[in-house]
Amino acid sequence: MKKICYLGAGTWGFALASILAQNGHETTVWTRDPYLADELQRTHVHPKLPGFQAPMSSRFTSDLQEALKGAEVIVESVTSAGIRPVFQEVLELGKIEVPVILTSKGIEQGTGLLLPEVASQLMGVQESPLVGALTGPSHAEEVIQNFPTSVVCSAYDPEVSRLILDLFTTPKFRIYPNSDLHGVCFGGAMKNIIAIACGISDGLGCGDNTKAALMTRGLHEIRKLSLVKQAKPETLNGLSGMGDLCVTCMSRHSRNYRLGRLIAEGFSPEGARQKIGMAVEGIYTCVSALELGRKHNIPVPITEATYGVIFEGLDPRVAVKALLQRAIKEEHL
User: Fold this and answer.
1) pLDDT digits (tens, 9 = 90+) for 7-36
2) Domains in the chain and their CATH numbers?
3) Which residues are catalytic?
4) What is the pLDDT of residues 173-223, one digit of tens each?
5) Which of 68, 95, 162, 308 has fewest C-beta within 10 Å?
6) Is 132:181 a contact under the CB 8 Å cutoff?
7) Helices and strands, counts by H and E, the chain
């Protein structure tokens, strides 16, 4: 059994940390919020997941040094924007010499780096053999209920992939290894943007035909842009691409879908985010993906339209109309 430092006590971190504790690992979950840490330590129930209790062996703290003490593995579930500042804090306490497993999904703004690249850079190398990722179609609300779930793991070093399998696998939480770390991380990041677009479409009453078109063309957009990160396009046909796209674009649990739907129903983007009350990764990644597309001269029309709605006040109806008026080209898969 491993001693694990778990960074992040959102619903996703809480659900995955519960799996680790159920599997017998000594798990200490860190959150920056001392009030949340105290509540979780006292009740072992997350305020946004009422009715589900983490194993009593789990520990919760707002003291980062305490969480890291003796850790054999670090697992991360903060946010894509929070990866760099959190790991900078970790590194101020000492060099990272244990495996790091990332579970957030995103692309860093400004740099265009995937989250494994951010972690590696902070550790002083281009591709750290200590860094891996766990991603795929999964909602905390269903994982915590022990619903059958299949996800994917990857790492720069196959040994870290095997570690992820050993740590997290349960009879109901099935993990498939994939050697394409950049591919699985890219799919997990980009699908959030398409989910916002699908939420907008549904909120406008456009119907299933429109959503199917957005998802299919969205996957094509993801595949095109993935090449700039040296990802394998076929990876996007799997759990971290099509699988995660489906669950995020069609589920009431999806924050990104809900954001889009609320905007279409008349909320401002900020008002919609506040109503959801949790991080909506697609807002952050939309900026990063548009930067990446423009830098490499790759058209990303769905991303661009979604950006316009969120950041430029573009009317959602105008955004949908503009997408429908784009010149038709032969479908390439």
Assistant:
1) 999 999 999 999 999 999 999 999 999 999
2) 3-181 (3.40.50.720), 188-324 (1.10.1040.10)
3) 191
4) 999 999 999 999 999 999 999 999 999 999 999 989 999 999 999 999 999
5) 95
6) yes
7) 15, 8
